[in-house]
Amino acid sequence: MTPKRVVIIGGGFGGMTAARFLRDADVILIDRTNHHVFQPLLYQVATAALSPSDIAWPLRTLFRSQPNVRVVMDDVVSIDRTAHVVRLRDSAPIAFDALIVAPGSRHAYFGHDEWEALAPGLKTMADAVHLRERMLLAFEVAERQRAETGTQNRLTFVIVGGGPTGVELAGSLLEIRRKAMGPDYPHLGLEDLSIILVEAGPRILPGFDARLSAKALTVLERMGVIVKLNNPVTVVRPDGVMVGNEWVASTNVIWAAGNKASPLLNTLAVPQDSCGRVKVRADLTIPEDPWIFVIGDAAHCLGHDGKSLPGIAPVAMREGQYVANLINQDLSPDRRSPFTYTDRGMLATIGRAQAVAQIGPFRASGPVAWALWCVVHIFFLIGLRNRVRVMSEWTWYYLTFKPGARLLFEPPSGQRHISSKDHVREFAVEDRPLSRRAA
Amino acid sequence: MTPKRVVIIGGGFGGMTAARFLRDADVILIDRTNHHVFQPLLYQVATAALSPSDIAWPLRTLFRSQPNVRVVMDDVVSIDRTAHVVRLRDSAPIAFDALIVAPGSRHAYFGHDEWEALAPGLKTMADAVHLRERMLLAFEVAERQRAETGTQNRLTFVIVGGGPTGVELAGSLLEIRRKAMGPDYPHLGLEDLSIILVEAGPRILPGFDARLSAKALTVLERMGVIVKLNNPVTVVRPDGVMVGNEWVASTNVIWAAGNKASPLLNTLAVPQDSCGRVKVRADLTIPEDPWIFVIGDAAHCLGHDGKSLPGIAPVAMREGQYVANLINQDLSPDRRSPFTYTDRGMLATIGRAQAVAQIGPFRASGPVAWALWCVVHIFFLIGLRNRVRVMSEWTWYYLTFKPGARLLFEPPSGQRHISSKDHVREFAVEDRPLSRRAA
Fold first, then answer.
1. Strands B56-58 and B69-73, how do they pair?
2. Tens-digit pLDDT profile for residues B403-416
3. Chain A closest CA to B359's CA: distance in Å?
4. Residue contact A35–B408, C-beta within 8 A
5. CB-CB contact of A166 with A201 (8 Å)
6. What is the pLDDT of residues A145-159, one digit of tens each?
7. Closest CA of chain A from B64, distance in Å
């Protein structure tokens, strides 16, 4: 049987790559948004260094030259794996011969989903724009208070999670504090802003070599970030968080800890791990169906070291390519070689001209790693337009410290009546969407 | 008396220019957003040709080098002209020695404010982003219907108002229809999209020479826009508009007709014209107070032909500069020469390589006028960064027809459950803010 119709759920790194590599099949790519996002740079949108359109691509435009790919903007409600049909919120059900499930993940709140409203995460462009609004509004409120009353009302940003996203967010906020805050918010002093990075484990960047973790810690602390290790967050309230035994007052908590796979996966009714990821077989299929694949953040896939592969873009892209090849060649299960992934290294930026890099046996930190980070991220951006835009934005920002993306649109009417006092509570009641992509 | 403190309400062209020219005074610039917008290009954000940050500047960053200017992001609730105090929504009241009122305007719905939710206008960045979402969603819904049912469900955009904004919006939509629709929405044919431009008066671009109006009409009609002249809109409903005696079914109505000045002006309790603009004296002050000025869209100011000056950027900027000079020189009313404005001409773009220009005795249309339009608009953008960004976006779009800003973020949860059938009603109940700037 040649799979005639391939349905892909999710236009992230995994789903998009699969669609690009599928040759003869009729492909239907479903996403709840109309664009692909370069997630590794989302934190720069959240901190107003880049604009949304610098790191996002309309899916329809991406697939203009591939007439076999049809893009559908919709939410997938459930997967019927017996009937080989996906059900959508607005569209008619779609039957498939092969299915690639790549709906991504949201952050894990460890059984406290009510924390999400108080400590939003950073997975989608909507998240990033929301965080940017929140950050800019917090600066405005602090500046106004200082100007009116002269009293110090400490502006504390707490970032929960010491992985790359947490570290990169902390570094970006620090840069705003060091270089942009003075000129733009004349009443705020450096002492008015604290940046606290909280990590439950013994070190930040746990995926990296211990030596690079230590180096990153040194750099962050030298630049002024307060890092609290071995301290899980146990309580989140509108006015602060409990870090270990210590209460930290903050109305700006950002969540960058843990992943929880899309709840859509539950409708497959196959074994999942504790994060909700589907335990896929060696060819990335679910048990009992050789033509339903799960990839990216949604898959629990073992690497050759016996540990599950990390939920990062290179893994998702390799998986998408692997699955597309299986489908292109119409390989029956017994003729498939298992999926393998060769680690291509890891990079994390810490701040201006500071990063850590770990590529095979190679280790670097400081400006060299940072330059490498810039080159790699520019290289992986799709298309000339966005490469040029991001490169010029970075150069501009580096030279002038004037980020151009610091825009606060009129907040929606529900949020508009926020006074400095009750703005905590306003954000607390806000309802955040839970799942990320077509889930 | 040297005015010690100058309060400016509104960071548009008038208020921003006044702040830039004020030298010795302590200036407090109040805006409800945190950015200045280059309004003449807003329609390009609404049609996804440009990104918000391409044509907006954070006010704080604009005034970094002017330490005498303090930026406050807040809504002005009322002006107490006896006590010389402005009252704000979130901040403490602010006393002033001189006041520059530049809160701008919203569109006029001719006594039918309920139409605004059905036929939103285009005055702020929030409006533009909202229109962009609405347009992109309409295309998605139409594409899905066509793909699923094969039946033609005509996608009709109705633009109310034949002034420059209406004409420019019609031209941009047309360009999307001609060049981008086919590749991106493969199920939609050219015949699926209609663009209707409605004008109550006898010609489009009424501010221009009759000959240029006729030229613009010819170009628009040749490119496929249906223009209905002498036809006021008398009814707006979620499913269409009544144009003269004809019912036009459309769920995408955009309002680009008429202006109504900010309701904040009513709190001044001085004579206003039928559009709500304050009838200012020759030195742009209100009656009985030589230190309260009203400028820009909010002022009814007579030109030397006895007609009121149009609400365009060059007028507002000249007014801002004039008022700043009066305050800088601390001129008493009897020593002030009246404000004068020399017309610098008008430009309107119609579509790809098509525009009309009218500068003094000079008249042009076609590619020459279009090139002039590009140069002028690039020239008036503030700062190198945005000039380079806009120029490169235009070049990219012109060459590739791939607009990069076509992003649809996850719609807020209220809007998310829109099926093709009831999306009309959903938009109908949406609540839009009425006033534009700090009003």
1. unpaired
2. 666 666 654 333 33
3. 33
4. yes
5. no
6. 888 887 767 899 999
7. 6
